[in-house]
TrEMBL record, chains A, B:
Keyword Nucleotide-binding attached: no
Organism expressing this protein natively: Solitalea canadensis (strain ATCC 29591 / DSM 3403 / JCM 21819 / LMG 8368 / NBRC 15130 / NCIMB 12057 / USAM 9D)
A GO molecular function held by the record: oxidoreductase activity
InterPro entries reported in the protein's UniProt record: FAD-bd_oxidored_4_C, FAD-bd_PCMH, FAD-bd_PCMH-like_sf, FAD-bd_PCMH_sub1, FAD-bd_PCMH_sub2, FAD-linked_Oxase-like_C, FAD-linked_OxidoTrans_Type4, Oxid_FAD_bind_N
The keyword Ribosomal protein appears for this protein: no
Matches recorded under PROSITE patterns: FAD_PCMH
Cofactor(s) in the UniProt record: FAD
Keywords: FAD, Flavoprotein, Oxidoreductase
Domain FAD-binding PCMH-type, chain residue ranges per copy: 41-220
Pfam families documented for this protein: FAD-oxidase_C, FAD_binding_4
Protein name (record): FAD/FMN-dependent dehydrogenase
């Protein structure tokens, strides 16, 4: 790949194309846009551009394509795979100014939004109409829906409501040559040619830039209940997860948390919560629906299943504040882990019932390579976030031995029918593991698809596949 | 495109590659595989091949690719867009012998199946374990799941459970050069590179041949109830559809049927059912769940909504036989329409609340071009099957004027935010309308994607895009 640096002549032309008020070259801004939430990586862009509309994105991409200038699209910078890092410099294309909810279509249960809308803002606006957009990553309070689409982001409610993929109906995208198209239709069903909408979801800004999104909404359930169940062993908690579904229950969230994660949440968030000595893991279970009696009965049934797997205590959250408190322990866990130690997070996912095998394997691999890990995540989906803790590990081991251990974890996940990432994406940091999951034939298909959309390779270079 | 005819030398080589017991050249077989359920179209293949396993598909495709022999994959031949018609001759590749349910994975709520499994067979096997595969096209008793995946097939329960797209986790596919890959992972979440699984769904056998399918199953609801509501106007029935969802209800099916369709079902199926004089349309509503009292209360609430839109009568089906009878009227409608007259079926889909506008538009266009239509379909999804009835229309008008009318119907659907096909696919017969929905930029992207997978164009040539 050969790219040009952004010259002062380029910069003048860019200003005339997208307006100087949208172009930033000061060091503070460049620094701010050099990283995301992925560990402590930093790659400086040469320019940060914040377009205001599709037309500006179009002329900008066309210009960069003609001038071989790399463009790295960026949402809110909450990514955990380094997807928005401008590793080849060039332009960091921040979508933050394109943050309008264009239309909340109550008649059709749809929202038309720009990519810079914060996910929780959309959820709250929908809730005012008694509608639900159920895809809520932990970062929902700050992440953009555009980034969610680009990375195929998930969250706890996938287990009942399906993935983001099931809620994105149509996308306006800008191709690197400046062409603007809609990928599909604003319909619940679609059998009209190759599904470009679905191809864009999870393409991590490597094919085109998303400029509008049509989202499916559903009626909002009126009630929910939350339970926190404690277990004397992490494996039995994991075993209980698939048993819940086999018993015919479909909770709206089923989250797994290891003891250490809970300890750190309690410590760093200053929460009053007693972690009993023998407890090794927790499951957070949410049920939702329109009939409170039925939900209580669901909780009882789920409780019975859990007690069959060594669960020794269940806390029930009924009031809003009780439920918030229970959820907070899960939602704040990523930040508490971060506060505790240098760490590295992996996003393994396996078929649900293989979770206990995965968890045990991770611990065994850790013992072999000398690292500790704290695991939590969307157990109902088989999606386990593995937080590898640096703690007392030497810099050298962290740099040289750890990658071997992570490689083994990925091999295990793939062997169990799973994959490298459930919802964080490949981005920069999972790229070295792609050949564990994919044969050269598959990788070559992906490279060729990339080439169809972006023949000069200017969009988010250095990500996902190489 | 340049293709070779299948010579006797080719045939001998094919026999050695896939076994002579799997190769058919007799006229009866060729005739049988020359058509599907799409009106009265017929294109003779030169050879019918019924492979028994992936390896045979692989060597066969490699051979055909090297020898420029077109291959048209075929499921059960129940398609409604001509997708399985071998318009360039060559080989009709029937997947009927690859019909094993490889594994019903109760622990993970997944099924691993071959493409030739009949959809209803999978549903019934899953039901024995109290599991649900909810994607049930009208042809579920005969269609293959492989064909369902290839065409992105739907059915009535999409409205609650989502499309087929939400239930397909992973695919084994064979590329035209014989390479075999898995497209994804057996996981509920997936953010690991371009989603080749989703790209394959609805690709209509033009990219690769599907040889194994991993399907997501869900706990089967224990109860359901069915209502048949009658309306004095088709528009008010359509208006009621989106009102049901706006009232916070999510039925497991919400089907629309025009009076004439009902008359023909009664006539051709010999059903005892009184169609009152003033009734112009019906809605069939199904609710399902695990609590019968709640379902009864849901039916009441839905009833209240319907009565607000001129509904004058609701029949409730509680017993299995009552429910079957009500469903049969909807399920047999396609066959009854077929029995009544030469017809042509379109598969328009629009955002749900635009249904009344679409329906009125179709009637107006019919009046302009002199054709009658009977509409029914998955109203809850905005998916309307438009059956244009030949009746007394002259051959000349049928041939020359009708396509102009259909063109206008498609234009209207697209203008309303919809698309050409919701679940039947583009295949052969919707191809002329692709440029109504798609710009040349989009079409060129699709052609280039085709070229990535199938550079010599041997797979299902003449379909979807040209």
């Amino acid at each position: 790949m050969y790219f040009n640096k952004v010259s002062s002549a380029h910069l003048e032309q860019l200003k005339s194309l997208v307006g100087s008020q949208n172009i930033f070259v000061d060091q503070v801004t460049l620094q701010n846009y050099s990283h995301d939430e992925t560990e402590n990586l930093s790659y400086l862009p040469e320019v940060v551009i914040k377009p205001e509309n599709t037309q500006q994105v179009s002329v900008l991409l066309k210009f960069c394509n003609e001038n071989n200038i790399p463009v790295t699209p960026r949402g809110a910078g909450t990514g955990l795979s380094g997807g928005s890092l401008p590793v080849y410099g060039g332009i960091s294309l921040s979508m933050e100014k394109m943050n309008k909810i264009i239309k909340l279509d109550e008649r059709n249960l749809q929202a038309h939004v720009e990519p810079g809308v914060i996910t929780e803002v959309l959820m709250e606006e929908a809730a005012k109409l008694n509608l639900l957009y159920p895809v809520d990553p932990s970062s929902k309070g700050s992440c953009f829906i555009g980034g969610n689409v680009a990375h195929g982001s998930g969250g706890p409610r996938v287990v009942k409501y399906g993935t983001l993929r099931d809620y994105i109906l149509n996308l306006e995208i800008v191709l690197p040559n400046g062409d603007v198209i809609w990928t599909g239709a604003n319909t619940l069903k679609y059998a009209s040619g190759y599904n470009l909408t679905q191809l864009m979801i999870g393409s991590e800004g490597t094919l085109a830039v998303i400029t509008k999104i049509v989202v499916k909404l559903i009626p909002k359930p009126q009630y929910n209940l939350v339970m926190l169940a404690s277990f004397p062993s992490a494996e039995s908690a994991c075993e209980a997860v698939s048993a819940v579904f086999r018993a015919g229950m479909t909770p709206s969230a089923l989250e797994f948390m290891e003891r250490a994660g809970m300890e750190w949440v309690v410590k760093y968030e200053g929460i009053k919560f007693e972690i009993k000595d023998h407890v090794k893991a927790y499951l957070l279970v949410e049920v939702d629906g329109n009939n409170l009696d039925l939900l209580r009965s669901d909780c009882e049934k789920i409780g019975e299943v859990l007690f069959g797997y060594e669960c020794d205590d269940i806390l029930l959250g009924e009031s809003a504040s009780e439920k918030d408190e229970l959820w907070m322990m899960r939602r704040k866990m990523p930040l508490s882990v971060k506060a505790n130690s240098v760490y590295k997070e992996e996003d393994t996912v396996v078929p649900r019932a293989e979770l206990p095998v995965l968890l045990k394997g991770i611990k065994d691999i850790g013992a072999k390579y000398g690292f500790k890990s704290v695991c939590y995540g969307h157990a109902g989906d088989g999606n386990l976030h593995v937080n590898i803790i640096k703690d007392s590990m030497s810099e050298e081991d962290w740099k040289n031995k750890l990658p071997l251990g992570i490689h083994e974890i990925m091999e295990l996940a793939v062997k169990l029918g799973g994959t490298l990432s459930g919802e964080h994406g490949i981005g920069l940091i999972q790229q070295p593991f792609m050949n564990i999951k994919f044969s050269e034939v598959s990788l070559q298909l992906m490279r060729s698809i990339k080439n169809v959309f972006d023949p000069k390779g200017i969009l988010n270079p250095g990500k996902m596949i190489n």
